[in-house]
Amino acid sequence: MSIRVIIEKCNACKLCVRACPFGEISMEGKLAVIGEGCNLCGACVPACKFEAIKIDIDRTPEIDLSEYSGVWVVAEQKRGRVQSVTYELLGAGRELATQRGTELSAILIGHRIADAANDLIARGADNVYLVDSPEFDDYQDEPYSRVVSRLINTWKPEIVLAGATAIGRSLIPRVAVMVKTGLTADCTGLAIAEDGNLLQTRPAFGGNIMATILTPRHRPQMATVRHKVMKALPPDPTREGNIIPVEVKESDRFVRAKTVDFVEDEAKTVNIAEADIIVSGGRGLQSPENFSLLEELALALGGAVGASRAAVDAGWIPYSHQVGQTGKTVQPKLYVACGISGAIQHLVGMQSSDVIIAINKDPYAPIFQVATYGIVGDLFQIVPLLIKKVRQRHRAC
């Protein structure tokens, strides 16, 4: 975008000078002059009664959408181990590729990771573009983004997916800029529209609504997807696919930073994202002391304790336990929600659980809309009964 003054129309009325909220318009003789600090807010355009100021919008040239085909997943690995979010993306990508009648491919970058490429094929990939070189042993955003963007520009996939992880959030925005396309971050739902475009659904406005975003005029359509939202396919060792070695160019190796050491996170926090059973509490617990009741139930079930944002914001339990859009997305086999009303911000983070049991006094609480089983009643009466019953079953076994 650019802004200009049409000399023939300007009559030095100074209306634009008074309208500019940043003081970037001045008069030189009888002509308005726009300063270099202009941020193109546009306030001066309607203020000028003589239509002497115009903002020119640079139109992106139309591309041939038919040149793009295929669904790609950017695989994430740490120390040679493929991260579970990659398998979830392959599960989602497999469904999208089937709907589009095209192939599912993965990009795998690292060092000594050839065995992992076969694992990706077993999990649903038809092709794996393998970048195996010592320079890529540890993740670095500059060389990784150069390789991924080069492959995209060469092979032209129509959809590219990556995990909404620390690595994905660092890598994919760079790639989107390099290939000149859009990016939808933190998606919780993906589908194919009737016209073939990718429907990318994500929470918006603090999780109060769900927005569905399309990229109709650019390719590839790129999205990052939250961990534990999509379902991974079970491995099939009989699947066959193509492993395509990718040549590493000298320009790919250039970096401005160097990895000195890799330190594992030793913080003693609860990793609820990997738990198979989670017992969560919300504002209905009334006080931090009452979380001990949930800890008892979680211990009896062999699970972890989670919490809603309201409970965390109240200081009742540390942030590491928070489930939801601003916390962790979870996908346990069993999720027990105690005293949680079910705001959309929380539902986004747990609605993919296999079985959801909701306990709430309010029969109209939104949590019951996603619950597999709902119990309307006082959690302080129900949870102790559940603990007693679970312990009895353990003793019987």
Task: Please identify the structural class as seen in this structure.
Answer: alpha/beta
Helix content: 25-40%
Q: What order do the strands of the largest sheet run in, or round the barrel if closed?
A: 11-15-10-5-8-9-16
Measured distance between first and last alpha carbons: 71 Å
| Backbone CA Rg | 27 Å
Main beta-sheet annotation: 7 strands, parallel
Provide the CATH superfamily of the largest domain: HUPs
Shape: globular
Strand content: 15-25%
- The name CATH uses for the topology of the largest domain is Rossmann fold
> What count of structural domains?
3
Q: Mean pLDDT across all residues, rounded? A: 89
Unreliably modeled segments: none
What is the CATH level 1 assignment of the largest domain? Alpha Beta
Number of strands: 21
Reported CATH architecture of the largest domain: 3-Layer(aba) Sandwich
The number of helical runs is 10
